[in-house]
From TrEMBL:
This is Uncharacterized protein. Residues 1-26 are annotated as: Disordered. The lineage of its organism: Bacteria, Bacillati, Actinomycetota, Actinomycetes, Propionibacteriales.
Amino acid sequence: MVDETGNPANGAKPRRGKPRPAMPGLSLQRGLPLLQMLAQLTGTLEIDTSTNCLTVNNGITLVDVAWPPGWTVATRDNEIALIDAAGHTAGKLGDEVYVGGGMVDLARTNVVSCTGRKDVFVATGLSGP
């Protein structure tokens, strides 16, 4: 129980521990892609520490992925997870993912980029290997 200042009630000492890291951001599409894209990006979900954005590491570089509308990042089972528009866990940090879509110049798409890169991989969803 806490008092009106947010401190523990009854004189108990406040809990001290590691500060919780800020939830990473992610790039999002503002609408559905206008083009049919047939590429596949394979890699692991990672955080770009320079921007605190969720990316996919394809083994060469961190790729800025613009996820479909409604996708988000949340904590599931005490781990950072990518959540699809239906509210299901699509993957957690370190998971290998297979993303359908294609690379697009940011200026030619309706995307809000988290990383600020010029090119983003516009995702149409996840698929199997």
